[in-house]
Amino acid sequence: MSKLPHISTSMFTVMSKMAAEHNAINLSQGFPNFPVDERLINIVAKLAKENVHQYTPMSGYPPLLSKIVTLVKKSYGRTLQADTELLITAGATQAIFTTILALVKTNDEVLILDPSYDCYEAPVLLCNANPVRVALNDDYTPNWEIIEKACTPKTKMIIINNPHNPTGKILKQSDFESLEILLGKYPDILVLSDEVYEYITFEQKHISAHTRKKLLNRCVMISSFGKSFHVTGWKVGYLVAPEYLMKEIKKVHQFLVFSVNSICQVAISDYLNLVSVDEIGKFYQEKRDYFRRLLKDSRFKLMPCEGTYFQVASYAAISNENDVNFCKNLIVEHGVAAIPISTFYADGKDLKLIRFCFAKDNATLEEAAKRLCAI
């Protein structure tokens, strides 16, 4: 009997498979198609001949842990203890999975704000716990009154994603104030803050949970070098947690992966000497603005994009069909792959919105926009 009976092939896999079959431009999956920074490639090439191919310590390569301490201090003003509050993970998904497996028990409830990334629910179910899906407002802002009503004495965790995939929204100061008030009423609830797009923000920076003193002792923060440095296939991320939670998380981590890819950890550690994370947001803002300009004469209505490398668009002026069928037809008839937003909702809520990934080279964006503007 399946432990995850209702979970089938993901929409990301479906759309990418269709895109390949129909030779469509794939703006569905969230990964770049442009070259990795040559400086990073050179570092890897040099390291390949060095003695960096055996296990690192379970928590991570010590110089990289030290670099992350410096990065978090510079970015958010928070001072971390590398040995007790920091863990290198095999990507953000493993960090999320490990955290939930370590901290959530049978019959606990975990609040997930929809639309939500698809990796949140499965580990909750595998813990024999109950995912409680709470929809954001239609403008993708949280309704804290509804969120609070969803809380019960069984609520163990609330998951926030900021900047938000798939919508590109970022949480406001008032959202964190409301969250902190909620936690004051429910002192046993923990927060899992998925911040993998933390350095991909535009007109204003996102507010990190790292900066909220009331959250620090009850929050696990998730970050991704794969997203930040355009190396998603490396699957290297990290999580930050207070020591009492980290002890439990490390217990699971040591039996799940024990340690993370050694050469990638060393390469990222060396690369952090050369690169500034401040460059990342500027780079993707140019991509966002260019893609939006290319689509300005299309029939799609572009939603605000405050962060991430995703652009949500309404096709309501084009078609009345549901978003899954619209995306399939978009591939077959027009040669562009996107993701239907309904797939991020537990109830399949359909607002006639789809998600494009603009982490692509300009030639790809130009050809995709040409096809989209012809609709």
Tell me what you see in this structure.
The chain is α/β, with parallel strands linked by helices and 375 residues long. The protein has 2 domains: 11-36 and 277-373, Aspartate Aminotransferase, domain 1, CATH 3.90.1150.10; 38-271, Type I PLP-dependent aspartate aminotransferase-like (Major domain) (Aspartate Aminotransferase, domain 2), CATH 3.40.640.10. It has 14 helices and 13 strands. The strands form 3 sheets. A 7-stranded mixed sheet has the order 2-8-7-6-5-3-4, sandwiched between helices. A hairpin with a 7-residue loop joins strand 9 and strand 10 (310-314). Helix 3 (62-76) packs across helix 11. The longest helix has 17 residues, at 278-294.
Which spans have pLDDT < 50 for at least 5 consecutive residues?
A: none
Instruction: Give the class from helix and strand content and strand pairing.
Output: alpha/beta
Straight-line N-to-C gap? 45 Å
Provide the succession of SSEs: HEHHHEHEHEHEHEEHEHHHEEHEEEH
Question: How many strand units?
Answer: 13
Please write the CATH class name of the largest domain: Alpha Beta
Q: Strand order, main sheet: write it out.
A: 2-8-7-6-5-3-4
Largest sheet: 7 strands, mixed
Approximately how much beta-strand content do the residues carry?
A: 5-15%
Task: Give the proportion of residues in helices.
Answer: 25-40%
By CATH, the superfamily of the largest domain comes out as Type I PLP-dependent aspartate aminotransferase-like (Major domain)
**What integer is the average pLDDT?**
96
